[in-house]
Amino acid sequence: MELIIYLAIGAIAGFAAGLFGVGGGLIIIPILYVVFTQLHYDPAVIMHMAVGTSLATIIVTSMSSVMAHHKRGAVLWSVFKNMAPGLVLGSLLGAGIADLLSGQYLQLIIGTFAIWVAFKMFTGANVKVDQSKQLPSRAMQVLAGGGIGIASAIFGIGGGSLTVPYLNKNGVVMQKAVATSAACGLPIAVAGALGFMWFGYHQHVSVPNAIGYIHIYAFIGISLMSFVTAKVGAKVAHQLSPAMLKKCFSGLLTVVGIYFIYQGIFK
Protein backbone atom coordinates (compact mmCIF):
# COMPACT_ATOMS: atom_id res chain seq x y z
CA MET A 1 0.00 0.00 0.00
CA GLU A 2 2.84 2.38 0.92
CA LEU A 3 4.58 1.85 -2.44
CA ILE A 4 1.30 2.67 -4.26
CA ILE A 5 1.18 6.01 -2.41
CA TYR A 6 4.73 6.82 -3.56
CA LEU A 7 3.93 5.84 -7.15
CA ALA A 8 0.95 8.23 -7.01
CA ILE A 9 3.17 11.05 -5.65
CA GLY A 10 5.64 10.39 -8.48
CA ALA A 11 2.84 10.55 -11.03
CA ILE A 12 1.66 13.93 -9.70
CA ALA A 13 5.17 15.38 -9.32
CA GLY A 14 6.32 14.22 -12.75
CA PHE A 15 3.20 15.52 -14.47
CA ALA A 16 3.54 18.88 -12.70
CA ALA A 17 7.25 19.11 -13.56
CA GLY A 18 6.50 18.52 -17.24
CA LEU A 19 3.47 20.81 -17.20
CA PHE A 20 5.07 23.79 -15.46
CA GLY A 21 8.65 23.35 -16.69
CA VAL A 22 10.22 23.14 -13.22
CA GLY A 23 11.57 20.34 -11.03
CA GLY A 24 9.08 18.53 -8.82
CA GLY A 25 10.94 19.21 -5.53
CA LEU A 26 8.56 21.87 -4.24
CA ILE A 27 5.63 19.52 -4.97
CA ILE A 28 7.25 16.31 -3.65
CA ILE A 29 8.35 17.82 -0.30
CA PRO A 30 4.91 18.93 1.02
CA ILE A 31 3.21 15.68 -0.09
CA LEU A 32 5.94 13.55 1.51
CA TYR A 33 5.70 15.66 4.66
CA VAL A 34 1.98 14.84 4.94
CA VAL A 35 2.50 11.12 4.12
CA PHE A 36 5.38 10.71 6.60
CA THR A 37 3.32 12.49 9.26
CA GLN A 38 0.39 10.10 8.67
CA LEU A 39 2.79 7.15 8.95
CA HIS A 40 3.75 8.49 12.41
CA TYR A 41 7.45 8.84 11.71
CA ASP A 42 9.58 10.76 14.21
CA PRO A 43 8.45 14.42 13.86
CA ALA A 44 12.05 15.58 14.40
CA VAL A 45 13.20 13.98 11.11
CA ILE A 46 10.10 14.13 8.88
CA MET A 47 11.07 17.39 7.16
CA HIS A 48 14.69 16.29 6.67
CA MET A 49 13.44 13.00 5.21
CA ALA A 50 11.11 14.81 2.77
CA VAL A 51 13.92 17.11 1.58
CA GLY A 52 16.55 14.35 1.30
CA THR A 53 14.22 11.98 -0.57
CA SER A 54 13.17 14.80 -2.91
CA LEU A 55 16.84 15.41 -3.82
CA ALA A 56 17.38 11.69 -4.49
CA THR A 57 14.45 11.56 -6.95
CA ILE A 58 15.90 14.54 -8.86
CA ILE A 59 18.88 12.33 -9.85
CA VAL A 60 16.57 10.28 -12.11
CA THR A 61 14.48 13.14 -13.52
CA SER A 62 17.59 15.23 -14.16
CA MET A 63 19.24 12.42 -16.16
CA SER A 64 16.11 12.09 -18.30
CA SER A 65 15.95 15.83 -18.90
CA VAL A 66 19.67 16.21 -19.71
CA MET A 67 19.55 13.46 -22.34
CA ALA A 68 16.66 15.19 -24.10
CA HIS A 69 18.39 18.61 -24.03
CA HIS A 70 21.77 17.18 -25.09
CA LYS A 71 20.22 15.67 -28.24
CA ARG A 72 19.19 19.20 -29.23
CA GLY A 73 22.69 20.55 -28.53
CA ALA A 74 21.36 23.01 -25.96
CA VAL A 75 23.57 22.15 -22.95
CA LEU A 76 26.55 24.48 -22.41
CA TRP A 77 28.94 21.81 -21.14
CA SER A 78 31.79 24.30 -20.62
CA VAL A 79 29.60 26.25 -18.16
CA PHE A 80 28.52 22.99 -16.49
CA LYS A 81 32.21 22.02 -16.08
CA ASN A 82 33.00 25.37 -14.45
CA MET A 83 30.05 25.30 -12.05
CA ALA A 84 30.11 21.57 -11.15
CA PRO A 85 32.84 21.68 -8.43
CA GLY A 86 30.99 24.47 -6.63
CA LEU A 87 27.64 22.70 -7.05
CA VAL A 88 29.01 19.47 -5.50
CA LEU A 89 30.78 21.12 -2.56
CA GLY A 90 27.86 23.50 -1.99
CA SER A 91 25.32 20.67 -1.98
CA LEU A 92 27.32 18.68 0.57
CA LEU A 93 27.63 21.79 2.74
CA GLY A 94 23.90 22.52 2.30
CA ALA A 95 23.02 18.99 3.45
CA GLY A 96 25.18 19.56 6.55
CA ILE A 97 23.48 22.90 7.27
CA ALA A 98 20.03 21.31 6.84
CA ASP A 99 21.05 18.58 9.31
CA LEU A 100 21.82 21.25 11.92
CA LEU A 101 18.44 22.97 11.45
CA SER A 102 15.32 21.84 13.30
CA GLY A 103 12.32 20.62 11.30
CA GLN A 104 10.51 23.87 12.14
CA TYR A 105 13.29 26.08 10.78
CA LEU A 106 13.43 23.96 7.61
CA GLN A 107 9.68 24.46 7.15
CA LEU A 108 10.00 28.23 7.55
CA ILE A 109 12.94 28.43 5.11
CA ILE A 110 11.31 26.24 2.45
CA GLY A 111 7.93 27.98 2.90
CA THR A 112 9.53 31.40 2.37
CA PHE A 113 11.45 30.10 -0.66
CA ALA A 114 8.26 28.66 -2.21
CA ILE A 115 6.53 32.05 -1.92
CA TRP A 116 9.59 33.80 -3.43
CA VAL A 117 9.58 31.40 -6.41
CA ALA A 118 5.81 31.92 -6.79
CA PHE A 119 6.27 35.71 -6.87
CA LYS A 120 9.12 35.51 -9.41
CA MET A 121 7.10 33.15 -11.61
CA PHE A 122 3.96 35.31 -11.43
CA THR A 123 5.73 38.58 -12.24
CA GLY A 124 8.48 37.38 -14.58
CA ALA A 125 6.72 35.33 -17.25
CA ASN A 126 8.68 37.01 -20.05
CA VAL A 127 12.39 37.17 -19.29
CA LYS A 128 14.34 39.39 -21.67
CA VAL A 129 17.97 38.33 -21.96
CA ASP A 130 20.73 40.81 -22.77
CA GLN A 131 22.90 38.62 -25.01
CA SER A 132 25.67 41.21 -25.11
CA LYS A 133 26.61 40.20 -21.55
CA GLN A 134 29.36 37.65 -20.94
CA LEU A 135 29.57 34.94 -18.31
CA PRO A 136 31.95 35.84 -15.46
CA SER A 137 35.35 34.18 -14.89
CA ARG A 138 35.67 30.48 -14.13
CA ALA A 139 36.39 31.24 -10.45
CA MET A 140 33.18 33.30 -10.20
CA GLN A 141 31.19 30.49 -11.85
CA VAL A 142 32.57 28.03 -9.28
CA LEU A 143 31.49 30.43 -6.51
CA ALA A 144 28.03 30.83 -8.05
CA GLY A 145 27.77 27.03 -8.23
CA GLY A 146 28.66 26.84 -4.54
CA GLY A 147 25.90 29.25 -3.55
CA ILE A 148 23.33 27.52 -5.76
CA GLY A 149 24.41 24.10 -4.41
CA ILE A 150 24.03 25.16 -0.75
CA ALA A 151 20.55 26.64 -1.32
CA SER A 152 19.37 23.74 -3.49
CA ALA A 153 20.33 21.09 -0.91
CA ILE A 154 18.54 22.99 1.87
CA PHE A 155 15.41 23.49 -0.28
CA GLY A 156 15.46 19.93 -1.71
CA ILE A 157 15.42 21.13 -5.34
CA GLY A 158 17.51 20.66 -8.49
CA GLY A 159 18.41 24.34 -8.54
CA GLY A 160 16.59 25.36 -11.74
CA SER A 161 14.84 28.32 -10.11
CA LEU A 162 18.29 29.66 -9.14
CA THR A 163 20.53 28.53 -12.03
CA VAL A 164 18.27 29.74 -14.86
CA PRO A 165 18.03 33.37 -13.58
CA TYR A 166 21.81 33.37 -12.97
CA LEU A 167 22.54 32.26 -16.55
CA ASN A 168 19.89 34.60 -18.01
CA LYS A 169 21.42 37.52 -16.14
CA ASN A 170 24.77 36.71 -17.74
CA GLY A 171 23.53 36.64 -21.33
CA VAL A 172 22.57 32.96 -21.82
CA VAL A 173 19.33 32.57 -23.84
CA MET A 174 16.41 30.83 -22.14
CA GLN A 175 16.57 27.48 -23.99
CA LYS A 176 20.29 27.02 -23.25
CA ALA A 177 19.86 28.29 -19.68
CA VAL A 178 17.13 25.70 -19.00
CA ALA A 179 19.16 22.90 -20.64
CA THR A 180 22.36 23.78 -18.75
CA SER A 181 20.38 24.13 -15.52
CA ALA A 182 19.03 20.59 -16.04
CA ALA A 183 22.61 19.31 -16.31
CA CYS A 184 23.59 21.26 -13.17
CA GLY A 185 20.73 19.56 -11.31
CA LEU A 186 22.54 16.20 -11.49
CA PRO A 187 25.62 17.01 -9.33
CA ILE A 188 23.35 18.93 -6.94
CA ALA A 189 21.04 15.94 -6.53
CA VAL A 190 23.80 13.31 -6.26
CA ALA A 191 25.94 15.25 -3.77
CA GLY A 192 22.91 16.49 -1.81
CA ALA A 193 21.35 13.02 -1.56
CA LEU A 194 24.68 11.48 -0.44
CA GLY A 195 25.01 14.26 2.14
CA PHE A 196 21.52 13.60 3.51
CA MET A 197 22.25 9.87 3.66
CA TRP A 198 25.56 10.48 5.50
CA PHE A 199 24.28 13.02 8.04
CA GLY A 200 21.06 11.08 8.62
CA TYR A 201 23.03 7.87 9.17
CA HIS A 202 25.14 9.59 11.83
CA GLN A 203 21.98 10.86 13.53
CA HIS A 204 20.87 7.18 13.83
CA VAL A 205 17.53 7.88 12.14
CA SER A 206 15.20 4.96 12.94
CA VAL A 207 12.63 5.07 10.13
CA PRO A 208 11.63 1.86 8.29
CA ASN A 209 13.07 1.42 4.76
CA ALA A 210 15.37 4.45 5.05
CA ILE A 211 19.11 5.04 4.71
CA GLY A 212 19.87 8.19 6.68
CA TYR A 213 17.40 10.85 5.53
CA ILE A 214 16.54 9.03 2.26
CA HIS A 215 13.39 6.88 2.21
CA ILE A 216 14.17 4.07 -0.25
CA TYR A 217 10.56 3.05 -1.11
CA ALA A 218 9.59 6.68 -1.67
CA PHE A 219 12.67 7.25 -3.85
CA ILE A 220 11.94 4.20 -6.05
CA GLY A 221 8.18 4.84 -6.39
CA ILE A 222 8.46 8.57 -7.12
CA SER A 223 11.40 8.17 -9.53
CA LEU A 224 9.70 5.44 -11.58
CA MET A 225 6.43 7.31 -12.07
CA SER A 226 7.80 10.83 -12.48
CA PHE A 227 10.09 9.59 -15.27
CA VAL A 228 6.99 8.53 -17.23
CA THR A 229 4.47 11.24 -16.38
CA ALA A 230 6.87 14.18 -16.96
CA LYS A 231 6.57 13.48 -20.70
CA VAL A 232 2.76 13.53 -20.46
CA GLY A 233 2.84 16.85 -18.61
CA ALA A 234 5.14 18.36 -21.23
CA LYS A 235 2.72 17.36 -24.01
CA VAL A 236 -0.25 18.92 -22.17
CA ALA A 237 1.77 22.10 -21.55
CA HIS A 238 2.06 22.73 -25.30
CA GLN A 239 -1.74 22.85 -25.55
CA LEU A 240 -2.19 25.48 -22.84
CA SER A 241 -1.24 29.14 -22.36
CA PRO A 242 2.28 29.44 -20.81
CA ALA A 243 1.27 32.61 -18.93
CA MET A 244 -1.81 30.92 -17.43
CA LEU A 245 0.28 27.85 -16.48
CA LYS A 246 2.80 30.01 -14.63
CA LYS A 247 0.05 31.88 -12.78
CA CYS A 248 -1.62 28.61 -11.74
CA PHE A 249 1.66 27.16 -10.53
CA SER A 250 2.57 30.34 -8.64
CA GLY A 251 -0.80 30.04 -6.88
CA LEU A 252 -0.03 26.43 -5.92
CA LEU A 253 3.42 27.38 -4.62
CA THR A 254 1.92 30.22 -2.56
CA VAL A 255 -0.39 27.72 -0.85
CA VAL A 256 2.60 25.38 -0.20
CA GLY A 257 4.64 28.29 1.19
CA ILE A 258 1.88 29.50 3.52
CA TYR A 259 1.27 25.91 4.71
CA PHE A 260 4.92 25.40 5.68
CA ILE A 261 5.26 28.81 7.30
CA TYR A 262 2.11 28.08 9.33
CA GLN A 263 3.45 24.66 10.36
CA GLY A 264 6.81 26.18 11.29
CA ILE A 265 5.31 28.92 13.47
CA PHE A 266 2.26 27.33 15.06
CA LYS A 267 3.01 23.59 15.23
Automatic annotation (TrEMBL):
Its main location: membrane. GO terms for cellular component: plasma membrane. The keyword Transmembrane applies. Signal peptide: none annotated. It is found in: Cell membrane; Membrane. InterPro entries: TM_pro_TauE-like. The chain crosses the membrane at residues 7-33, 45-67, 79-98, 104-122, 142-166, 178-199, 211-232, 244-262. It is a multi-pass membrane protein. Keywords: Cell membrane, Membrane, Transmembrane, Transmembrane helix. It comes from the Bacteria. The keyword Membrane applies. Belongs to the 4-toluene sulfonate uptake permease (TSUP) (TC 2.A.102) family. This is Probable membrane transporter protein.
